[in-house]
Design goal:
mainly alpha, 3 helices, 72% helix
């Protein structure tokens, strides 16, 4: 049974988005294991933490837009 190109594109897009969520979580992982008394170690990962936070904010906004306006992401804009 063959998949339609539209369905395979949709699966690829969802997989890519999931991969980017996992990458953002990996970037933020050092911040989740810090103790409140160990905040000086947070300075070891400033760029990693900042890029993880930026990715999370972008993808959280994209996910909200996809949930609120699903017709925009699945319809052709021609």
């Amino acid at each position: 049974m063959k998949r339609s190109p539209k369905r395979s594109y949709k699966i690829l897009a969802v997989g890519f988005q999931l991969l980017l969520w996992i990458a953002a979580a990996w970037l933020l992982y050092p911040l989740t294991i810090l103790d409140s008394t160990d905040l000086t170690r947070a300075k070891e990962f400033p760029y990693r933490s900042a890029s993880g936070i930026v990715l999370m904010v972008i993808f959280f906004g994209k996910t909200l837009i996809d949930l609120i306006y699903p017709h925009v992401s699945f319809s052709r804009l021609t």
